[in-house]
């Protein structure tokens, strides 16, 4: 497949940190694609050197595959370093716990060819592999319709950073990623939301392409909770930074976020009520079972209610992990931070 794949004038950037197996899986997915990038760069912030993983791949002709170790920690710093290390006019970003599908780059390229005015192309992020007990989808995007965004929209709607392509000139125009935000930074998250917000405010059009698909590794419950907390903190930090700059849209972003979280919390409470009702119905049925034993039947203890593999934890249902109040606290703290850390 790789021998006949088209080479595109695109740079793919993979952020990695101490996940060698995930990185190998991600690179295999990219290099097995229907179309291949001219440049493929791995920015490694791990304690263990991942250069051996990268050198284990025999890059096809026409593909420059490079590993770069970076001492600075933070997802935004990784993204910005990839911009500096590459020259292609379009950069496609993903992470080491993701696997792009075979048509990922083909669909991104098609979108830009059909609509040259686009600044950014995003796509779905769906769980990787079949469900397994104790693991949960994280940061999923499931839209199945092609949508073009421009002007103000809640900046988490167009897509997520693990499946995002951006024109280099638009990245330069808005200053790249703000290194105060993102996983590993003081802000904790929302570097992609911040970039989308600034791109839209600068006049960019963002296309969501439902066939440009990336798969994201499922996470255990504790990782899922930690990830969700960083989202809320990052939104708050973003709004605080915008308020410090005098951008009144920060209040709208924070209000939209609060509405989203409260709606989901209400839906979660409704799910709790339904689950309790089902549990009570089971209990009533099980209460009759001991009679069967006396008649020679088999009775068993009432089964404990199990949390569905895709169901949120109780704290998530109540909206605590991404609560508007946590975001507001982060917003107040961020107003005292230093000046932006952007691309020069």
How are the elements arranged and paired?
Elements: E1 6-16, H1 20-31, E2 35-44, H2 51-55, E3 64-69, H3 75-85, E4 90-95, E5 98-100, H4 104-114, E6 118-122, E7 125-127, E8 135-136, E9 147-149, E10 164-167, H5 168-174, H6 191-201, E11 205-208, E12 214-216, E13 219-220, H7 221-244, H8 249-287, H9 289-294, H10 314-317, H11 324-334
Parallel strand pairs: 1-2, 1-4, 2-3, 6-11, 7-12
Antiparallel strand pairs: 4-10, 5-12, 6-10, 8-13, 9-11
Helix content: 40-55%
Question: What is the count of β-strands?
Answer: 13
- Going by CATH, the homologous superfamily of the largest domain would be Spore Coat Polysaccharide Biosynthesis Protein SpsA, Chain A
> How many domains, as an integer?
2
Provide the residue-averaged pLDDT.
84
Give the neighbour order of strands across the main sheet.
3-2-1-4-10-6-11-9
- β-strand amount: 15-25%
Q: Termini distance?
A: 39 Å
Question: Roughly how many Å is the radius of gyration?
Answer: 23 Å
Outline the biggest β-sheet. 8 strands, mixed
Structure in words:
The chain has 344 residues and is of the alpha/beta class. The strands form 3 sheets. An 8-stranded mixed sheet has the order 3-2-1-4-10-6-11-9, with helices on both faces. The longest helix has 39 residues, at 249-287. It is globular and about 65 Å long. It starts with 5 loop residues before the first strand and ends in a 10-residue tail after the last helix. Mean pLDDT is 84; it is low at 289-322. It has 2 domains: 6-217, Spore Coat Polysaccharide Biosynthesis Protein SpsA, Chain A (Alpha-Beta Complex), CATH 3.90.550; 220-286 and 312-335. The chain is 41% helix and 18% strand.
